[in-house]
Amino acid sequence: MVHFELSEKDIWPGCREIEIEGELDLAVRERLRAAFERAVAERHHVLLDLSGCDFIDASALAVLVQTHQSLSEHGRQLLVYGVKGQVRRLLSLTAMAETGLLVTAAAPSAPPVLWRDRLRDEKRRQSAYA
Predict the structure, then answer these.
(1) Where are the beta strands (DSSP E) in the chain?
(2) How many domains, in total, are found in the chain?
(3) C-alpha closest to that of 108 among 81, 85, 72, 71
(4) Contacts of 3 (CB under 8 A, 6+ apart)
(5) Domain span at 117
(6) CATH of the domain at 8
(7) What's the CA gap between 1 and 107, in Å, rounded?
(8) How far is the C-alpha of 5 from the C-alpha of 94, rounded, in Å?
(9) Beta carbons of 46 and 18 less than 8 angstroms apart
(10) CA-to-CA distance for 52 and 18, rounded, in angstroms?
(11) Taken in order 104, 61, 100, 77, is the CA torsion positive or negative?
């Protein structure tokens, strides 16, 4: 069996961080979905830490997209950070950042109200290197 851990903690008022370690695939997608559903039901913004995630498949990617849509409908955001390797490639290939799922390399140091500003600044830096 492949290693997988999911932890949740509230880090700011109205913001839950979900940390993944191991592989996100069909075998564990329901655990991820349940964690996201709790956050949506409690009207939290969600920070998803994938720095310990080595692999993501299409079923887990679908959960991310569905969660992003659910959160948006409730005026909340999903911010994914710590992406690397295969996970970064998959998110880049599927243009997830352009569809509203926001991806950043570092953990946000500010509450959700400031995420848009930080991400806008990050996009400017990336454009400067393109």
Answers:
(1) 4-12, 15-24, 45-56, 78-81, 102-104
(2) 1
(3) 81
(4) 21, 22, 23
(5) 4-129
(6) 3.30.750.24
(7) 29
(8) 25
(9) yes
(10) 11
(11) negative
User: Can you give the pTM of this predicted structure?
Assistant: 0.83
7: number of Cβ within 10 Å: 12
Signed CA dihedral, 20, 79, 44, 42: sign only: negative
Q: How far is CA 106 from the centre of its chain?
A: 12
Residue-wise pLDDT tens digits, 10-58: 998 899 999 999 999 999 999 999 999 999 999 999 999 999 999 999 9
Chain Cα centroid distance, residue 13: 18
pLDDT in tens, 94-121: 777 666 676 777 777 777 766 666 555 5
d(CA 82, CA 84): 6
Phi, psi of 10 (to 5 degrees): -85, 120
User: Which residues neighbour 51 within 8 Å (Cβ) at sequence distance 6 or greater?
Assistant: 81, 82, 83, 84
Separation of CA 92 from chain center:
13
Q: Is the dihedral of CA 63, 67, 70, 73 positive or negative?
A: negative
